[in-house]
Amino acid sequence: MAYKIPSRPFCDSHTSSVAIAMCKSHQEFLCTHCLVGGVHNTCGNLIEIRSKGPIYEDMLIDLSMLRKHAEHKLSARENVEKEIEYERENVVFQINQYLEKLNEALQTMKSETESSMEQYITKDTEFLKTEIKTLSNVLESLDDAITTLFEADAQQTTANKDEERPITHAQFQGMLVKKQQAQKMAAYMTDPDHAVLRYELVRPLQDIIIGRRKLFGKVSLNAA
Q1: Helical (H) or strand (E) element with 221
Q2: Record's SUPFAM superfamilies (predicted)?
């Protein structure tokens, strides 16, 4: 509500009471309570506020009222300035508080993401170690099978030249088993179900910001 200059001044001590006098020494407006209490009686410089008094007294009263009005405006502006500063500090505090919570949430998300990623990487690494070991065994078995077949072929050639050392049925069956094992191992090596794992990275950060949180990555058991 706007502050209006009253037609008559109010007491400075009792703001709800109309002033009936003014102390020129202290430039304060006084009401009946002040005069009865004798607060400014010793000043000896009181003037009565009348509807029509001497021109200089009326001018002094008007100027004093204007001064009081200016002081009121100044006080109001200072209070507004304090309120603005308080609001500024409050907004800064809320922003910092929000940033702290956001940072905590991001740190938690980072830890969860790293933990999830490490689990997948560990799983991938163990799988690859198993694959390497299996493929090494396949190569070793193939080498054994090839060696056995070469030996069997050499024995067959020798048996054709020397009828006294023919290949036996058991030896032939053994070579056949080796051949079948080698074929099975070779098929395993080319089977797409045993391809190396593919690791897909996280989706764009925007997915996290808008709430579509995903794990950092996922494992695909089939090659692209």
Answers
A1: none
A2: B-box zinc-binding domain
- Contacting residues for 85 by C-beta, under 8 A, at least 6 apart: none
Q: What contacts 74, CB < 8 A, 6 or more positions away?
A: none
Domain residue spans of the chain = 93-220
Task: Note down pLDDT in tens along the chain; length 224 residues.
Answer: 444 555 678 888 887 888 878 887 777 888 888 887 777 767 777 787 775 667 777 777 778 888 878 888 888 888 888 899 999 999 999 999 999 988 888 888 888 888 888 888 888 788 888 878 877 877 777 777 677 667 766 666 655 555 555 556 776 676 677 667 666 666 655 555 544 444 443 444 445 555 554 444 443 333 33
DSSP SS3 for 82? helix
